[in-house]
Amino acid sequence: MRIRLIRKLVMLVSIFLMSFAIHQKKQTKVYLIGDSTMANKEVKAFPETGWGMPFAYFFDSTIEIDNRAKNGRSTKTFITENLWQPIVENLHEGDYVFIQFGHNDEVKEKVGSYTTPEEYKTNLIRFVTETRGKKALPILLTPVTRRRFDSTGHMEKTHPIYSELVKEVATAYKVPFIDMDTKSRELLQQFGPENSKWLFMQLEPGEHPNYPEGRNDNTHFNEFGARKMAQLLLKELRGLNLPLTDHIRPPLALKK
After folding, report:
1. d(Cα 254, Cα 98) in Å, to the nearest integer?
2. Which of 24, 27, 196, 224 is the most buried (most CB within 10 A)?
3. 36 catalytically annotated
4. How far is CA 131 from CA 86, 143, 182, 210, 220, in A?
């Protein structure tokens, strides 16, 4: 009787483990690599929010968003600080890598992270080829715009060189491409010079306990701005007709 019971328990455990393994295999990982405009933020930084944070809630349970973006990183430092290699080693067939850099690559004053246009292209190509080498899918994104209006109230291009380089690599290597620079600039233009401040870290002294002296930041988003950027990306992603879009959460059925 005891032997029969043990056999039954072993069989049940085996079935459970098999079911767990099947479930694990079905889950697809989506890596986000980039800088502070995408990154997860610590509580002490709030209300600063990277767009990767709300983006993580757009998909069903078969998709895992792994946000590896880091503040202050460029394509160069993401490689030299060994942030990229662990991702490559853990990529599986069918995974995705969203690649968005530029803010730190293009600033010559940032000696450690500045990346020449030639180096920038080389690094993007490396991300693409090594991702594909693991049978995963790279997606190239231009950097989101900085908030900068001219004297007539029109948004200025803030990444003219580096955004074009992303497009060149995407075209040459036939990589799915989303022009977040253009789309985010169009969105801020719709908001206008004053209302667009509501998307960024624009705080008066004493307005938030994390920033007692206030903050005037036209690069980093607050919760609202990050959500708007994530929504822009989701809309563009739908247009690419990738298998990933089949796993976007369906709308909630609201009770009447």
Report:
1. 32
2. 196
3. yes
4. 12, 20, 25, 38, 28
Q: Which of 42, 109, 118, 213 is catalytic?
A: 213
Alpha carbons 105 and 73: distance in angstroms, whole number: 8
Q: Rounded to an integer, what distance in angstroms lies between the CA atom of residue 84 and that of residue 71?
A: 15
Q: Catalytic residue among 14, 23, 36, 204, which?
A: 36
- Tell me what pLDDT residue 253 has: 53
Would you state the pLDDT for residue 250? 82
How does pLDDT run across 106-133, given as a tens digit for each residue? 999 998 999 999 999 999 999 999 999 9
Give 197's DSSP letter: G
247's CB contacts (< 8 A; 6+ apart) are 28, 59, 60, 62, 63
pTM: 0.87
CB atoms within 10 A of CB 81: 13
Phi and psi at residue 215, in whole multiples of 5°? -160, 140
Residue 81 is among the residues annotated as catalytic for this protein: no
